[in-house]
Structures are given as C-alpha cells and as structure tokens.
Model the fold of this input.
Amino acid sequence: MKTIITTTALILVLATAALAGPTLPAQAQRIWAPEGDLISYDQNHATATLIINDDHGDWAKAAEDWAIRGKTFGYGLFNYQHTSDSNHQLNVRGDGGNVPGSGLAGNVGLWSSTPGKYRVRLLYSKHDHYYDRDSELRNPGFPYPPEPPALSDSPHLDWRRGRLDLSWHLSSAFDVTFGIADLRREGSKGSLLRGTSGEAPPAVLSQKTKQYEVYLGGVFRAGNLGGGLTLAMRNADGWRTRSGTNGHDYDEERKSYRAALDLAYDVSGGTRLAAYGALNRLELNGREIWGGGDGSTNSDSENAVGLLALQTRLGRKTNLLASARFEGLKNESQIDDMAGVLYAGDTDRQRQDYRLVLGNTSLPRTRLRLQYRYTNADREGVTSQDGRPGEPTVTVAQGLNENRVRHDVDFRANANLSKAVKFKLGVRYNKQDVEQTASGDDWYGILGDHNRSRLGWTAALKTRPHPNVPVDLGYQGIDQTFERTAGELAETTWKANRLFLNINWIASARLSMYGMVNYGKETYELTGVGDPAAGQAAYEYDGQTWRFIPGAVFHVTNTLELEGMWEGIRYENTGSETAALDAVKADHDRALVRARWQTTPKFAVTASYRRNEFFENRWDNYIQDLWGLSVSGLF
Done:
C-alpha cells in the first residue's frame, strides 16, 4: 500500500536566511526544498506559493496525481513572534495548502510564555490522506483508470488534531502542568484500481474515530532532589466498515489510564541518580459483524515499567552512563459470537534491558564512545477456541513459550585530524537469538528457533583541500545473516555497500557549484529452500544504484539569483530471474530551475520549474512538470 500525503509538510524550523547576502553555496538538503522555506526562524515572515501540476506520459498516473493533489494548488507558511517590555513572549507559526474538495490543510501553532510565571502551547493540525494499494502493480490484465482530469471516488481520509499544554510556575520549588489533546479521523481508504464493474473502487473501508487525552502533573524541586508526577486518561471510540463481498463492520471503545513518577538526585557535581516508574491499564470493548457472524471483542492489559540510571564521571576524561529497565505486561482478550466465546488468549511478557555507555576524550581532538546493551525478554501465552484457556468447552488450544536475547555493541569515534580534515567512524554489531516452543494443539504455525546477526560500519571524511572547496566522502557497509534453525534449515544473507562523495566549490562571490555522487550495491540470497512457485517474485536480489546531482547557484546581481540542479538515479536488479520476471531497470531524473528576485530588502519573488521523469521497464512510465510562483516577505 502506498500512502500519499497530499498537503504540504513544510519545515517550520528554518535555519538558512534567504533575505540575507549571497554567501553560502547550494546545500544538498535544500535542493528540492519548496519555495519560501529559506527564511530565518527568528524573523517575522510569510510566504505564498502557487503550483501548476502538468502531468503527462502515463495517463493513469496523471489521473491519480490530479485527483489527489489537483492540477492547480497552493501552499504557504508564516511566522510571527513578539517580546514585550515586560518580557512576555508570543510566537505564532503555521503552514498549509489547499486539498481538492477539502479546503485548506496544514498546521498552526501558538506559543506564549512569561519566564518564571507560565507557558502555554496550542497546536492544531488538519491533513488529508489518500490510500492507493494497487497503482504500483500495473499489470496489462487490469483496466486503467479513466484519463485526466477526472478520477471519481478517490479514497479520502480527513485527519484533525488539536493539543493544549499549560504550565504554571507556582513557586521556586513547584510547577503544575495540564494538557488536553483531541484526535479525529473520518473518511475512507481503498483501491484506486477500477474493475469491470465501472469506475467505483472494488471495496472501500470507511471509518470514523475520535480520541481525547487529559493529563495533570506536577514538577517539584527540593535541594538536590527533583522529580515529577503525571496522571493521564485517554478515551477513544469509533467504527470501521468495509463494503464489498467480504463485508466487515467493527466498532470499539478504548480507555486507558496512566500514572508515572520520575526522580533525579544529584549526588555530587559529577554524579546523578535517576529513577522512573509507570503503571498503565488499557480496556477495550468492541463489536464485530462479519458475514453471518455477530459478536463482541474485549481485552484488558496491564503494563508496569521501572527504570534505574546512574550518570557519573570517571576521572576528568571519561563519562559513564549505566541503566536498567524492567517491564511487565499482562493481557487477557477474547472474541465472542452469539454462541459464546469464539477465540480467547492470555499473554504474560517480562523484559529486562541493561545499558552501559562510556565516553572518553583522552586522545587529543578526539571523542570516543562505546555502548553495550543487553536485552532479555520472555513470553508465555495460550490461545484457545470455543472457550477461555483452561475451560472444559475449549476445543483447540495452543501455548507459546518464547525467549529473546539480544546483544548490541556500538562504537563511535570523531577526530579532528587537522583544521582541514575531520574523520568519523562508527561500528555496530548486534545479535539476536530467539527460542520458540509450541505446546498443545497444532493450531497455527510458528517460526521456531532462529537467530540474526548484523555488522554495520560507517566511515566519513570531511576535508577542505582549498578554503573554497569543502569535500565530504564516506562509506557504509552492512552484513546481515538470518538463520532458522528449527525444522527445515533456511538462511538469508543481506550485504550492502554504499559510497558517497559531496563537493562544494565557491568559485567566486557570485558563483557556487555543487556536486554529489552516490553508489550502492545490495544483495539478498535465500538458501536452504526450494525454488519459488511460478509467477512468484525472485528470491535472489542483486541491485545497484547510481545517484548523481550537479548544480550551481549564480548571483547575477545583488538582487537576482539563479539556481539550477539536476538529479539522476540509475537502478538495476540483476538477481535471479527464476520466476520468469524481467530484471528491474529504472531511471529517475529530476531537474530544477529557480530564479529569485529580491525586489526590496524585505520582499522577494521566486519562480521555479521542476521536472520529474520516471521510467521503469515493468511498471510506471510518467513525466511530471511543476511550475511554481512564490512571494516571500518580512514584516
């Protein structure tokens, strides 16, 4: 299933000043950024952008894009902040855009505070989500949707969320906190694939849910001791219904309660002890209607968590962090039909997690960190039919005992070899052993005993061979083995090697150039099993990906800037073709041309053209042109 969020997800925490002078080269992270995002976070600003979506190539793809995003759409963002003479601080930020048939969507937030008195945060979000489970499985045997510009009955989900947080500073030793959150979803999801019955989706899942949460807490300080207590309650209810031949209706109500206490004590200037404990309870009551069945669902869960931690300094150059976490979960659930208990289950889980972190700065201009983590988890559970576990009416019951043990070792090193050379190294190894034993009736299958080991390493070098030419290069490698030791022996291996190179060249005060090259090679191989059935995907994978991005930024005058970027991605899978499928080959090209005119010190106009081309030998081939016009201003 592919999920497309059709509204903007603009970054509100903005770090690069666009209304400042032309001093920085083009940065990789902003190549494909939307217009108007290059405004400093600490200034009052607003941006509005208009986009024209011109899809062509694969008409089915264009129909989806136009139905979801629209042929013409806009978005914008703003930031306003003010500090009064009495030191009261106010900040309002927001971003959003239009959604076909649903009006505006986006985010807005308000922050208000007076240091030493109170803090208030108010957030509201509204978004639209669309679900398309079949567009990537284009097969000549399936009919295409209608051509643009119309695609009827596009699955749609309206998502709204609001949150209010308050904090009062009652005294130097005590603060009170309060919060409330509300989340609502309403709409439908389903396949955009049109069948022989016409343009209507073959099945649609409709849903309407609402959820709210309230919490009350306090934070206290007494000498070297500090802590906080939080009490929270959450209630959620809603219904879901699926149309079509296999119709299914389901409604539920969930209630949860949580209490949490955390404490911290400063033993000395370099040593701190911390403790945390929480209790959670979840109650679920629901009803299901499927085919000729009609019944209720009930579940009760209790979860307890405890944490102890020590942070201290060993000498002047070494820091130590040690922690132990304990968790217990008990769950009882059952599904009833008109005749009584249909399915039921009891589960008991226990988990311990121990961590040890050492940081050292003994070597000149070098930081070292070593972390070890040990996790042990046990699970015991019974699932039964026609009665609860242990009752005489039970016809089938199966127990499962499971133990999971995991070891993680992580080593990191950062070294400044010189003023122009910085080196980073990371090595991580983890191993997980799982023992699974089933008892009772042979009802459902389990994987049995299995283990996984993974070794990963990264190395990066940041250099500056010339004051105007920073160069970054690096490597990442992964070697993983997954082995099933119970029953038929099967082993899966995954190996990956990735390289990257970034170059910035500030050729002059007006011209900067950028280049990046990435190469990746990954292989999967499954051994110990027979060949896949005809028509199934290949089980061996050998993929190679090349990615390269050249670009340039040219300041024609002090007020006019031109920017051009091109990205090419070449992918090929030359793995096993025993399933009679062609090797996948794909080309993805993106181009950007952008012009920015600083009409006044506080106002700018940006025009852009983006082109996306995707060609894949088995599925989609399409081209998309996006024309944009944006205005940005400070106030």
In short: The helical segments are 59-69. Residues 1-29, 133-151, 192-198, 534-538 have pLDDT under 50 and may be disordered. The chain has one helix and 27 strands.
